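Q&A FORM
Asked by: J.P.
Topic: structure of Protein kinase domain-containing protein

PROVIDED:
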Amino acid sequence: MPQFGNENLDVPSFDAKYMPVHVFGLIEYTAFCLPRSELSSSIQQPKAAELNRLREKICVVKIRTHSPLDQHAENERRVHDLISRSGPGDDANKVLEGMFLPLTDHGTTNGFTWLVMEAFCPSLTLGALSRHAWDNTRALQMPRAFVAHVFVELLDILETMHSQRRLAHGDLHVDQILIDLNPGRERHKYPGIRIIDFDAAVLEETGGKGRFASTVNDDRTRFCDVIATLADNQLPPSRDSQVTDHLSEDWYVLRKSMWDEKPLSSGVEGTNVTLQEMRSRFGHLAEQVKSQASTE
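REPLIED BY: S.T.
REPLY: Here is the structure written out as tokens.
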């Protein structure tokens, strides 16, 4: 039986199918699990090959109270259904495929809703990577080409979500973005990224046009916050006095724009530049930065 803190969660339909391996949720029950169908009772001390096979079967499970007052799990399930929707001539899934954790199973029992999603190991969040890079004892700067990669990938994801799925995330930040470090799943020679946790997402068809538009704008400012965090550790960007080439100067302009457009906690009044305008202004620059890095 799953246990969260001192509380046992009576979810028999889940417990019959999955075995928790590691619990890491703080607000809700979230855990890495193994499908019981993959476990062999005859193996007491599994060999390396069997452990590797099991590692590939690990999934991530979220369990939440199912009630009219807590619709987060149901909301996330609807979002995954919307993301996976496709039809003739629908190009959205070509962009979204591989950028989310696919929902593989779900159920409701005894007042709980559980969602099972594909997991991948190893992985880490952009937040964990950024905190490691900017640790005062290391003083490492995030590679410019990787920041440019995240800039382009996040633009692709958010523009497709907003325009073709009429979906806004609502809680985008560096710890909601995973880096996929598995070999063979790179995108454009860089690690792929995936957005997680859609329980605060807003769908236009259920949330209404006004709330959807407001959340799209929130995604926009939080996108800028993500780039500002990676590029400058949330500090006002400054020019490198030792570098005078045009590419570095243009890159400073991009970083300064991300700082100016991030949430108003920075004390700077943004100009509400849309994601499409950001792509028009800086998309080519980001691709140029990546291209230069690949030739060095």
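FOLLOW-UP: The chain has ten helices and twelve strands.
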